[in-house]
Every structure is written in structure tokens, then in C-alpha cells.
Amino acid sequence: MEKKDNKVSVLFMLFSILFCVCLIAANVLETKQIAIAGISLTGGLIVFPVSYIINDCVCEVWGYKKARLLIWVGFAMNFFFVLLGALCDFIPGAPYWTNDAGFHAVFGLAPRIAAASFLAFICGSFVNAYVMSRMKLSSGGRNFSLRAVVSTIFGEGVDSIIFFPLALWGVVPTEELPWLMLWQVVLKTAYEVVALPLTIRVVNYVKKYEQEDTYDKGVNYSIWKVFSI
């Protein structure tokens, strides 16, 4: 019986681990509100854009199929973490435990917020990977910087359009929602632009090390073919 070659490299595995860590860390950091230059944001802004940078790197080097696997693995690990946090939050604390409120604030993610977060992540991440892949084909592999920025704008835009209305409608004044969405897209894209010199170096190194530079000619862009790598 012929064995299918569906192995992944060590570097891809390391990228996947970092991707999952970023998503899980973002969930925890989102519970803190921060202010940068007078703009109110969540702490997740520190790490969440890194997941889009990793998405770009994986899609650029290994192609859409590997990026699709990465996105679903990240979704599964993040869901598992949130589920464990919710379960532990539900279990009554020990008699001497006095930090229920603090623990709940971090791990007691409301179902509405969790659902909005998961849906926004899946849609935004796949849009980011799709745009990156299609632009690489149409440009013949040129202009990585432009592709990385444009794919982030589309991905983060979809993420924000889905997350904020679903999670915060009726909680935040309606007139404030468009500004929240806009600032998220602008700042996360700016994050990507600032990180571009490092991203380019990493991508070039990985391409050289892996001897791989995938073009997604004829690829099936269905998000459900998880193990087709």
C-alpha cells in the first residue's frame, strides 16, 4: 500500500506552536484594558497581530494548504484552552480561596464573547491566507511586503466586522463601534508594517533553509480540507 507523504517540517511545527501560544495568550491579555496615546485598547493587541504575521509566513513559504492546517489547529487549541478555563471557573473554589473574582475576570469568558471571538478568528484568518495566496499567484511571487499588508487589512477588517457587533452590540454605544473596529484594523496593520523588516528576514531564511517556495496553482481553497497538506 502506497503511503501518502503528508509530513511537516520541524520549522513548520515551531511556527504552529508559536501560533497557538499567541492565540491563547491573546485570550488572557484581552481581559486587561490598556491605553496607548490616549486610545483605549485591549492587551491582546500586544500579541494577536503576531498570529497574522505567522499566517503570512506559513502561506508564503508552505502555501495555503499548510496555512489552512495551521488555522484549524490554532482554533482547536484555543477552544480547548477556553473550555478548560470555563470548566475550572465553574468548579467551586476551596474554602480558603479568596480570588474567585479575579480568576473569573480572566477565565470566565462569556459565551457570547467566546462565540464572536472564534467566528471572527476563523473568518479573518482564512481571508488573510486566501488573499495572501491569490496575490502571490497574480504577482508571480513579487512584492511580499505589499501582499503581507493588504492581506492583513482584509483579514483584520473581517475579524473586526464580525467580532465587535456580535460581542459588543448593546454593550458599547452604537456610534462607537465603527471607531473601535477602525482603530483595531489600523493599529494591527501598523504593527505588521513595523514588523515587516523582521518578517522579511524570517521568510527569506525559512525559504532558503526549507528549500521551498510554494505557489498555490490549482489548490482547493475549501476551508474544510484540513488534512489535505
Automatic annotation (TrEMBL):
Bilayer topology reads: Multi-pass membrane protein
* Alphabetical keyword list: Cell membrane, Membrane, Transmembrane, Transmembrane helix, Transport
Tell me where in or outside the cell this protein is found: Cell membrane
- InterPro entries referenced in this protein's UniProt entry, alphabetically: YhhQ
| Superkingdom to which the source organism belongs | Bacteria
**Which coarse location class applies to the principal site listed for this UniProt protein?**
membrane
Which region is the signal sequence? none
GO MF annotations in UniProt: transmembrane transporter activity
Family under the similarity heading: Belongs to the vitamin uptake transporter (VUT/ECF) (TC 2.A.88) family. Q precursor transporter subfamily.
How is this protein named in the record? Probable queuosine precursor transporter
What does the function comment of this entry state? Involved in the import of queuosine (Q) precursors, required for Q precursor salvage.
Q: Which HAMAP family match?
A: Q_prec_transport (MF_02088)
Show the stretches that span the lipid bilayer. 9-28, 34-55, 67-93, 113-132, 144-169, 181-200
Q: Which NCBIfam families does the entry link to?
A: queuosine precursor transporter (TIGR00697)
Native species? Hoylesella saccharolytica F0055
Q: Name one GO cellular component term.
A: plasma membrane
